[in-house]
Amino acid sequence: LLDTAKALRIGIVDRLRYLYIPACLPRVVRNFQPSWANGMFFLVGSEILTFGETELQLFGLGTLVSDFAVAGNVTGIITALVLLIFTTTLINLYVFIPLNNFFEAPVRRPSKLSQRLGFLRRLAQPHFPHLPHMPFFEYHKAVSGLASKLTVYGSLLRNLVFFALGGIVVVFLVTGGDEFFENIITAYNTIGIETLAYSSLYSFLRVMAAVCFSVAWSVPAALAVARKPELSATVSTVFQVIASIPVTVVYPLVAEWLADQPELRAFIMIIAATQWYVFFQVLAGLRNIPPVELELVDLLQLKTWDKVKTVYLPRATPALITGCITAAGGAWNGLVVAERLVLGDIVAETELPGLGKLLSELTYAGDLVGSIAVLVTMSSIIVLMNRLFWKRLYDAIAPKLKIE
């Protein structure tokens, strides 16, 4: 396709329109549901911002839930939760599911749940059109090789960004950066290297435990769903709705049960910000298995485990790694809420140290330089993990298993 585009002298705008963007859109759409779920996770924490004595409250469902939790208004919390579930269901029916169907090959029949709830669409739009599949996406396998062709442009862009940021850093150092770095070093000394080391270790263990747990249940669940096309869409819809229910909204209802289990509470919250990335990525990878391979294993009458070992797992592995990368990122973000959740006067925190807990304490204390020091530490760990582990793992496995 790229060679044809060059031979026809197609401009960069048309290449973006007809090649690059269509090749990327299915993967982007695939991440809508878990991204929505992760956004809902931060609903409570992000609408009330506190830094020292300064507090900023934004009007929204998260703020209302926080006020209900402080007042002990269980009815208000349940009402907000029901409203959120209803809204999420509508968004899935009208936005996410149509988009997924639009960008996927028509290999499945509509689910029974989708058919039964179809009247909701007809009520809102009497002549709701059937979204046609774009002919281009019948060739999505051939387009998958475009990513490798973009490395030249990606390298050029990275170099430009690197030099631009380098110039900004140089200007910053010349115009007073020395004082800033002295303050950062002072903050590190005040916090203590040992405290940062232990906090980093415990946070790292929590993140890895959450990712491993997500993989442990997501892979079998995605396999079970993908192997039954008649249930695939229904289960996916139900899981999408469940994933979009923020655990931070549910927590006030179960706060008493988890009061004596701070680590379990933190683990559940990290899982809520992590697991759906793995599940939906693996499920999407399994749905993209070439039909000819599935027909071949059926023809050979392979046993279930042999099918899983020879076809399903190898084809799902690149998507699994991608899901783990995004899940780990979601887990690191979720640490700030999971390790220390603040709802008005209610503070639920872990007994053991953690970077999220430390960052929350420094933020509420109004220590800007200390907060930056913790963020630099957390960012460094994430970058090192991505470069030294995840990227190498993906580069070693994905090319061997890519669907050509």
TrEMBL record:
One of its GO terms (cellular component) is plasma membrane. InterPro entries: MetI-like, MetI-like_sf. It is found in: Cell membrane; Membrane. It comes from the Archaea. Signal peptide: none annotated. One of its GO terms (biological process) is transmembrane transport. Its main location: membrane. The keyword Transcription does not apply. The chain crosses the membrane at residues 74-97, 156-175, 196-219, 231-254, 266-286, 368-390. Residues 200-387 form the ABC transmembrane type-1 domain. It is a multi-pass membrane protein. The keyword ATP-binding does not apply. Keywords: Membrane, Transmembrane, Transmembrane helix, Transport. Belongs to the binding-protein-dependent transport system permease family. This is ABC transporter permease subunit. It comes from Caldiarchaeum subterraneum.
